[in-house]
Design a protein that fits this description.
mainly alpha; Rossmann fold; Tyrosyl-Transfer RNA Synthetase; two-stranded parallel ribbon; 15 helices; 56% helix; binds tryptophan
Length: 333
């Protein structure tokens, strides 16, 4: 059985983008692999160091979201990064194997520094050592568990490349010890935001969360982008530029979606009606997820136990891997 390792930063609840882009893939993979799913609290702190309450709260929020979509804790080891000291230890060892300039050139890091002007300054002049180094820590996340396959979004590819470079460097110096990980890109495309933005995200304010209640869903969908050329209710329009149609395709039945498309093109469907139907379809889609979630909200002790068990299995794997690594590095005193 191959080992899968992936991580999520606990900085907010999961939204539809996470579900279709990542969660659905996890569900498919959980039967066939030794699957380690890291709640990356240490990584979340690299740009939320001043907000520990947010990170702590979201460790539980994300775990409950993952369980609500149907991840089976008997199949997937869900664990908390900060509870595995070997990851921090390995990050220190790896920090000798990567140059500062290489990290500064990492495209993912560059983009993120540009997005976080408030924290790191206009030109990244106030970048912290920890944030610059998080790709090194992510390489440790992966290799601590001998991760062979890493399901990620395409924004993470430069981090995977960085990890492979570190692995090759390690193996060339200390002898063949670590495996080079391979990415598993999501088979679904990235889910666009309600405003038509290519990406759905919290900071963009265009996301539907798995925990959103009916009123929130209603408000969000009523404000979604439609064909701006359609002025009157009976104008024919182009569904391909309409986010309401886009979401019908994601969550509604195929027969309904076909109807939405042809009526929209013919001009026999008003946007308000179309949005109302989407609201209903969206609520139906989210209902089973939210029912599952309710159980975990009402039983925090079950969530604690799941994290405890996942973390203890992860710890065992990390200890085995660390003794191999220390032996290779001749620090196995
Ligand atoms: N950086 C990833 C993200 O922001 C989260 C993550 C942490 C991760 N550790 C990982 C992903 C290890 C893959 C493997 O989405």
């Amino acid at each position: 059985m191959k080992t899968i390792l992936t991580g999520l930063r606990p900085t907010g609840n999961l939204h539809l983008g996470h579900y279709f882009g990542a969660g659905k893939n996890y569900l498919k993979m959980q039967d066939d692999y030794d699957f380690y799913l890291e709640i990356a609290d240490v990584q979340a702190l690299t740009d939320n160091f001043d907000n520990p309450d947010k990170v702590r709260k979201n460790v539980y929020e994300i775990t409950k979201d993952l369980l609500a979509i149907g991840l089976d804790p008997h199949k997937v080891h869900i664990f908390i990064q900060s509870k595995i000291p070997q990851i921090a230890e390995l990050t220190v060892f790896y920090s000798n194997l990567v140059t500062v300039s290489r990290l500064q050139r990492n495209p993912t890091v560059k983009t993120e520094i540009a997005q976080k002007k408030e924290l790191f300054g206009n030109n990244g002049e106030s970048i912290t050592y920890g944030f610059l180094g998080y790709p090194v820590s992510q390489a440790a996340d992966i290799t601590t568990f001998d991760g062979e396959l890493v399901p990620v979004g395409d924004d993470q590819l430069p981090l995977l490349e960085q990890c492979r470079e570190i692995v090759r460097k390690f193996n060339s110096i200390y002898g063949e010890t670590l495996k080079e990980p391979t990415q598993v890109l999501s088979t679904t495309t990235r889910v666009k935001g309600l405003d038509g933005n290519d990406k759905m995200g919290k900071s963009l304010g265009n996301a539907i969360y798995l925990v959103d209640d009916e009123e929130t869903i209603r408000k969000k969908i009523m404000g979604a982008l439609t064909d701006t050329n359609k002025i009157k209710k009976d104008d024919p329009a182009n569904p391909d530029v309409c986010m309401v149609y886009y979401y019908h395709k994601l969550v509604n039945k195929e027969a309904n979606t076909t109807k939405v498309c042809s009526e929209c093109q013919k001009g026999t469907r008003g946007c308000v009606q179309c949005k109302k139907e989407l609201i209903e379809a969206m609520n139906n889609f989210l209902k089973p997820i939210q029912e599952q979630r309710k159980y975990y909200d009402e039983h925090p002790e079950v969530v604690d136990q799941i994290l405890k068990e996942g973390t203890s299995q992860a710890l065992q794997k990390a200890q085995e891997q660390m003794s191999k690594i220390k032996k290779a590095m001749k620090i196995d005193y």
